[in-house]
């Protein structure tokens, strides 16, 4: 067995958390190897090619480039330039036959809420509080790379790194978004439906379950700069990949990690490629960017027991049903690229508990993603992995019924779609997702927010095994591209501290 010892750090999985950690280490001169089992890098923030079109891994928005946000820091520190164009307004929400436009301008957004939900004084008070909390959360989270604290010294850092005047925000770790809505008098049925569906995209949970500390950022993300990556999110991953390769690192796709074991101060990482070739690498540092649920299967002994224990608390998580559709471009010019469509009150998509669908479209004229005169649409909605894994004989029928229902909703509610000719359509369920990105049970989007889980109960970035670190959406601070980027930056800070 030939052992490759060329690398200072090995990263398992090429999602945005691992890519960010890799880029930060590469800028300091560390030789990094990233191992990815799938055909394309990027995990859930990637693109794939199908029948002449480029589709995104799921319907998704992109923020985090404003000052004090994680992608701003990543670019700032490394000099990487992620190709992007700002889009404004970033999104429309279609609810009860009405279009609610998510303006970036905060005053304009408050007035839009007043137009649709009424009650100006209460709406203004609620949103002003949400902006205040969200701005502070972004600023504070970037300033505290060793969170959640794991050592006495890190508790000390929390005291010295932060302004004592910011402590007021912590009460919102114990108050849900629903509590805060009641407090400000905006808890109407229609507004709650709107808030619940927005939170399902950003927090994977509804207003009762999401602490306002996280929910504020989840509700106001459209009030920061939102971006589109021409050619698809894979181009963002490729920009980071080039940087790492130029610094002597490497990214191998179609090479999955089968086992991580320890040998003295070093880790042995055993892999198998899709061509059935086996490789072994040795390095003092390993960063896992795969979900905590997957880790017990690729570790043994104490390590495996640790991950089994960590994953036990988070046995509930969402999967997704996603559709990729290519149609001719018959959409109104002013239609935003992102649209959240509510079903009729009380309706759900078959074989899901989902009350809304989220649509992300390619930009008109993006000739990498769609040929001239055509557009691609990515549609996502939440689904229970357990249900889709228990279908057996009825799986194909259920999948077709979900697809037909979603297409019918688009024809009724997405402007222009009723006149569109569908050239390509394919549907993926949690089962498909597990085959694509190898996440256990096809769970995507991390761990749902929960009032029962305190800030300190998040899976930490540092494990009890010296040199083994975790990032990605099942660690603090959770899901979304800015969230996982922050987790990668935090892992880098820990490594810098522990392995000077």
From TrEMBL:
SUPFAM superfamilies per the UniProt record, alphabetical: FAD/NAD(P)-binding domain
Q: Which Gene3D superfamilies match?
A: FAD/NAD(P)-binding domain
Q: Looking at the record's lineage, which domain of life comes first? A: Bacteria
* Pfam families for this protein: Amino_oxidase
Question: Where do the Amine oxidase domain residues begin and end?
Answer: 16-491
Which PANTHER family does the UniProt record give?
PROLYCOPENE ISOMERASE, CHLOROPLASTIC, PTHR46313
Protein name per Swiss-Prot or TrEMBL:
Phytoene desaturase family protein
Q: Which organism is it from?
A: Gracilimonas halophila
The taxonomy runs: Bacteria, Pseudomonadati, Balneolota, Balneolia, Balneolales
């Amino acid at each position: 067995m030939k052992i490759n010892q060329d690398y200072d750090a090995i990263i398992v999985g090429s999602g945005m958390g691992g890519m960010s950690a890799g880029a930060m280490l590469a800028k300091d001169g560390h030789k990094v190897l990233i191992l990815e089992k799938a055909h394309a890098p990027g995990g859930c923030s990637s693109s794939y090619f199908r029948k002449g079109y480029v589709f995104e891994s799921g319907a998704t928005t992109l923020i985090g480039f404003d000052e004090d946000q994680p992608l701003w820091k990543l670019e700032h520190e490394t000099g990487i330039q992620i190709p992007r164009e700002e889009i404004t307004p970033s999104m429309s929400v279609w609810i009860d036959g009405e279009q609610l436009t998510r303006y970036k301008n905060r005053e304009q957004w408050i007035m839009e809420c007043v137009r649709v939900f009424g009650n100006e004084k209460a709406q203004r008070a609620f949103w002003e509080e949400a902006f205040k909390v969200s701005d502070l959360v972004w600023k504070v989270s970037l300033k505290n790379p060793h969170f959640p604290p794991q050592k006495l010294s890190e508790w000390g850092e929390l005291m010295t790194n932060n302004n004592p005047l910011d402590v007021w925000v912590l009460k919102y770790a114990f108050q849900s978004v629903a509590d805060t809505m009641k407090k400000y008098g905006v808890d109407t049925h229609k507004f709650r439906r709107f808030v619940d569906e927005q939170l399902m995209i950003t927090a994977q949970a509804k207003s009762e379950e999401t602490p306002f500390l996280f929910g504020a950022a989840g509700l106001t993300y459209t009030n920061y700069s939102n971006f589109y990556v021409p050619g698809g999110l894979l181009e963002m991953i490729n920009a980071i990949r080039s940087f790492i390769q130029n610094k002597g690192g490497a990214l191998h796709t179609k090479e999955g990690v089968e086992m991580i074991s320890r040998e003295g101060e070093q880790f042995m990482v055993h892999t198998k490629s899709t061509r059935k070739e086996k490789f072994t690498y040795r390095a003092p540092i390993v960063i896992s960017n795969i979900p905590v649920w997957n880790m017990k299967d690729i570790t043994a002994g104490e390590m495996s027991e640790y991950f089994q224990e960590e994953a036990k608390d988070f046995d509930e998580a969402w999967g997704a049903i996603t559709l990729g559709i290519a149609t001719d471009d018959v959409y109104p010019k002013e239609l935003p690229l992102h649209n959240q469509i509510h079903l009729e009150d009380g309706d759900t998509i078959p074989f899901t508990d989902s009350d809304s669908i989220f649509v992300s479209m390619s930009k008109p004229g993006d000739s990498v993603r769609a040929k001239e005169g055509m557009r691609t649409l990515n549609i996502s909605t939440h689904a229970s992995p357990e249900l889709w894994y228990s279908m057996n004989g009825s799986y194909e029928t259920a999948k077709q019924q979900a697809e037909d229902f979603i297409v019918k909703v688009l024809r009724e509610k997405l402007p222009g779609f009723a006149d569109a000719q569908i050239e390509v359509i394919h549907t993926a369920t949690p089962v498909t997702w597990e085959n694509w990105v190898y996440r256990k049970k096809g769970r995507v989007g991390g761990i749902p927010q929960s009032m029962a889980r305190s800030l300190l109960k998040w899976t930490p970035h540092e494990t009890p095994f010296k040199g083994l670190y975790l990032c990605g959406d099942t660690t603090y601070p959770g899901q979304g591209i800015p969230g996982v980027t922050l987790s990668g930056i935090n892992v880098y800070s820990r490594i810098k501290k522990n392995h000077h």
